[in-house]
């Protein structure tokens, strides 16, 4: 298939079938593969951490020894060996690259007209502007406050006569700007943070020139390709299994193959860089912004302009680069000011506080990213696309500085704890490309926003309600494993919603620990030394023993199951309290006796029982195996 107006041809039959070595070109000895596969070379080479060395990402540095981004993308060297020209590289793992191309061809053949038009918009629109859509109910407020505009809002019906680039519309308000917006605006510091994260040393071009992996539309599918005899709108022949570029983008393509590599995707890099800057400034929409980045980068494949490995490469480099820029001491004041500006602006515009802004940011039922489950299903397959696991599972050493990416989303954790969150939510090892130098590709920021994936040792978390926002209340939604336990301190509220299996026990010392699922409390003993354990409107199970000196807060309905089921012994110490609430949809009847706590055995009783519903009283009824309350209207 012709690759450009110059009609160069890259035959994928040669590309996929050729297993012989070719000149390593720009990756002359030692090659990337040598660096990662030869233990003696790896041991002898001491590189600075990526966050300390990312400024080496310039076009004159095109080797793993000289460029930190090339090192971070080194997993691709196990898949592809660069040739001495753009069309002479050699697949090292052809089964992956076949799957890569077939995925792209299948997707572009099956896309709808609406998907094609959307792909055009996100190809031509400024990437920082496109990412604003991840802010949901806050998006229009952001555009107005930042004076952010675009001229690309829809796709033309046919092929544009010239190349199209985003520009400030002639009728835009004075002071408007492309991308994240104007520095001279109510959100100028946020715009500056986005531009800084996307600033110096963050280009994908050095890596593109290094790897010289062709874009999918420059490669035939395989040796069975069939010429249909048809031609596209620009006169190129059409093959039945080709990757089909969106027609509106045909003239937007580069005509110089040697300067237009596919890996890594520059648009993907830009989308994720902007996303991580916005997520830092507006962590109330952290997961939704991450989801939008994955959705928009998928349009790079949908458009026919990039392949799955290109997109994964762009995400990997953006993750590392965003961490490097945010970790840089010179940017400490800017990132803090941007976060403060965003919080104050949105609270003022919505009439919310630090404690209620999150709810407002998730209040629109028509929000494209309102369904967290749907977001997770969108993101998960795009973390690995066509890659398959191989080899043994190895633990991740979280790259230096990566914890900064969670600094505003999990502000109540210290740096070491945020690193543990990243480690315990990371993708498993064994995915070639993701296992490159420092393994930035294994980080799963969507999952990390939901807290720990495992307690490998005891975790103490302190939430301070006086500080507001996530400091005062947060939810961990992952299914937490591991031998460690949890200690909850501080006056804030932590909610656990996973099917948790950690075995080290749960201790509440202050504030509120809310069980948002039946298995939220794991597999160990539970101790309520102070503060409150809340079960909400569900039955919660304690797999071990239960000891209470603080408060148990339950919501009762007409059901027969206790609010708290204890497999072992329950001990209610002197001073322990019970707070009873009613399920609004099915409240208990006056005169009924409702189970509160069931246990293998029970010692003690609540020192005080309070009904948090006006006009009701409750009398506890204790047996050797539990506690019920007899409810009456006054």
From TrEMBL:
Swiss-Prot/TrEMBL keywords: Signal
Signal in keyword set: yes
Domain named Phosphatidic acid phosphatase type 2/haloperoxidase: residues: 187-326
InterPro entries cross-referenced by the UniProt entry: Autotrns_rpt (IPR013425), PAP2/HPO (IPR000326), PAP2/HPO_sf (IPR036938), Pectin_lyase_fold/virulence (IPR011050), TAT_signal (IPR006311)
Pfam families named in the record: PAP2, PATR
Protein name from the UniProt record: Phosphatase PAP2 family protein
Protein species of origin: Streptomyces ossamyceticus
